[in-house]
Amino acid sequence: MGLPRDIESRWTAGVVLKRDPLSTVERGRFASGSGDVEAVLRRIDEVPWWSFGLARHLFARERRALAIAGELGIAPPLLFAGRKALIRGWIDGLPLHIAKPHGERAFFRSAKASLRKLHRAGICHNDLAKEQNWLRGRDGRAYLTDFQLAARFQRRSFLFRIAAYEDLRHLLKHKRRYAPDALTAAERRVLAKKSLLTRVWMATGKKLYYWITRDVLHVADREGGGTRLMHDAPRIATRLKAHPQVREAVVMAFPDRRAGTGLYAFVEGDSALTERGLREFLGAETAAKAPPKLPEHLQVTGRLPRTASGEVRREILELVAMNQVDLIEPLIANEDERGLVARIVADRRNLRDRFAF
Asked: 226-346, which class in CATH?
């Protein structure tokens, strides 16, 4: 389907960032009044009929919140807002789960300051438990994104104070994970005490939420990879590791413009390994149980990037799988890793979305 008519001459499509029954999000370029700029498009013209009502509601919430938050320097600016498409500015940075700001006290000071600005403007984000909704900019500062669940309050009511408290508590959970030594005594007290509404939600509404997201919308993980990442990916990785010439296998999800969610398998093994041979090996899985759908992409390499402790650097592979290779450079640890990653990038399989950023 083509672009909404009100932006078709102004938008140049790039890489799909996310696709689910509530919207399609992609990165590209937008012809603004000051020239072409990097931007992110959210469109709801392609969602199925049965989810359109909810998609439109969430779309409107994001539009209202971004119109304010985007002017505060803590979130992407709102560049365009139509009936079924909105375009926000691009922030040069990485999501928290990829950036992994271990020990970065300055980042969390910035994050707290950003949250304070948002709340002073009468907006609560309501979805900050997700690490991908926090960005670490190349300037080291914290930025907020994805305002679909955000609420705007006219006054500092009881509900506002509860929502703001939960925004802060979720930020502190991330701080506890990445910079625990920087937590103050007051922050530890906040972490130890959930609001009453949150306790009620976790005991009741959260079960309904999981049913809707996992069983109806098929979104089951923090990055929106869906049930294929949750169920098929582990089975594919286990099967690949059973091959005698395979040393390691990692299966990542990537958003696909046509299929919604695809799987990308990275395999570390002997030079004699071939993609065709591995696909035949996967296809030979016993018929005693339903085999998982094969990964859309499979790439064999002699080495995978690893940390000093030997763990595979999944955050780098995720960016390769999503074809957002221009974001990898800040993650490179040394020259050896730079050369290794460059070879993997040059041989990558996901080339459907090709765009020179």
From this structure: alpha beta
